[in-house]
User: Fold this.
Amino acid sequence: MALEIERKFLVDQTKWPRERMIFLADRVFDMKQAYLPSGKGVTVRVRTREILRDQAGTHPKHEAFLTIKGPSKGISRPEYEYPIPYEDAVEMMQLSDKPTISKLRHELRVGNHTWEVDSFTEGGNKGLILAEIELSDEDEEFQKPEWLGEEVSHDSRYSNSKLAVNPWNEWKDK
Assistant:
């Protein structure tokens, strides 16, 4: 079992270098995510991603993953992720009873960590930009980039599975 320890932040869009980011990021992906029916606090996600930019140039153009996440305890939760055939993932997404999430992901190194910055590109979450960092310990120190905004790690509305059914643009208090 892997333990995911993740902190999540809004991105201050006035400081986010949107036009230059494709050149600054180590990797850029066009991603689609669907959530399969589950219960007991468990999330089952199917993800496809197309690699738009990869400095190493060693990855296939299309990839797909099946991810199972257990219930959260603070900012930690068990996570299991497996690569699956791309065609299977596309078919499995049709089993979802929730809308698909679409986003661009920019991975970039800041200090000793890699940040994943997701710009939602379609539907009710279009315009939302979130930054995530995975840590090895809940109290681990990390460098905060200048474009980091408010922390939302403990606000479950910002989980992708919740955004699929309660889109950000429909919130009255965003």
